[in-house]
Amino acid sequence: MSMQNDGGWIVGCRLAASGLLLSTGICLPVLAAPPVAPAEGINSKFLDPTLDPQEWVERFEAESREVFHAREAILDALDLAPGDRIADVGSGTGAFLTMFSRAVGPAGRVYAVDISPRLIEFVEKRVRDENLDNVAVVHSTATSTRLPPASIGTVFTCDTYHHFERYPEMLASIHQALIPGGLFVVVDFERIEGVSREWIMGHVRAGKKTVRQEIEAAGFEFVDEVEVPAFVENYLLRFRRPAGSAAR
């Protein structure tokens, strides 16, 4: 198990899925509508020990991918400053990490959080090769980010929320990891009957309205929806952990 000292607390960079979890103090939200189950086996390919990271680089880091093409506008919506701490939950191949690393500077910290063992290995190598000294890699689980309480100013998820198989627990973990007043930014696919393409309808479990309801039910305040001109199939919502709120 690789461990890294980070200003008084320890990040387990390669914790096994069966390892100890941080306590999340979970309060399961009561939703306005019945929960919508994720697509069966939605994360199985990312947990596959034979996964080829380069295949996903080609998918995730192509200008033809809407969110990658719009990455500068997404960065602007995060409003990062030198010294900030941001966690990219579902960091995948690390497509945003270099941008985030530069934005927060040497005094800041970036956490690349993912559930995939093979992508964790890939991002660890990327961090070394690109000398991203302010980036730490964290192997998460289906129920926990494994980030310390009140340690993060911004949590970002990009086309990842619909992959939260245990979203009440993950939302509780994100709520706990954020400092009071911290920002939670969600980019995901629009899912609209009769409008969205077939792949989205079969892959993405819930539309924007339901996603907002779930996140608000988990104790977050809705801030706004940021219009990103390049978006056709995605949206960007911003939420905040209320100042003075207790962990969920």
Structure description:
- This protein is an alpha/beta fold.
- The protein has a single domain, classed as 3-Layer(aba) Sandwich (Rossmann fold), CATH 3.40.50.150.
- Helices cover 29% and strands 22% of the residues.
- The chain has nine helices and nine strands.
- The protein has helices at residues 44-47, 53-60, 66-69, 71-78, 97-104, 117-129, 167-177, 198-203, 208-217; strands at 3-6, 9-12, 85-89, 109-114, 135-139, 152-158, 178-189, 221-225, 234-240.
Topology readout:
Blueprint: E1 3-6, E2 9-12, H1 44-47, H2 53-60, H3 66-69, H4 71-78, E3 85-89, H5 97-104, E4 109-114, H6 117-129, E5 135-139, E6 152-158, H7 167-177, E7 178-189, H8 198-203, H9 208-217, E8 221-225, E9 234-240
Parallel strand pairs: 3-4, 3-6, 4-5, 6-7
Antiparallel strand pairs: 1-2, 7-9, 8-9
In total, the number of domains comes to 1
Helix/strand structural class? alpha/beta
Q: Give me the CATH architecture, please.
A: 3-Layer(aba) Sandwich
CATH homology group: Vaccinia Virus protein VP39
User: How many β-strand runs?
Assistant: 9
CATH topology descriptor: Rossmann fold
- Measure the end-to-end span: 29 Å
Q: How are helices and strands ordered from N to C?
A: EEHHHHEHEHEEHEHHEE
| CATH domain class name | Alpha Beta
Radius of gyration, rounded? Answer: 17 Å
What does the overall shape look like?
Answer: globular
Q: What does the average pLDDT come to?
A: 86
Strand order of the biggest β-sheet: 5-4-3-6-7-9-8
Largest sheet: 7 strands, mixed
- What are the low-pLDDT stretches, counting only 5+ consecutive residues below 50? 1-34
Q: What is the share of helical residues?
A: 25-40%
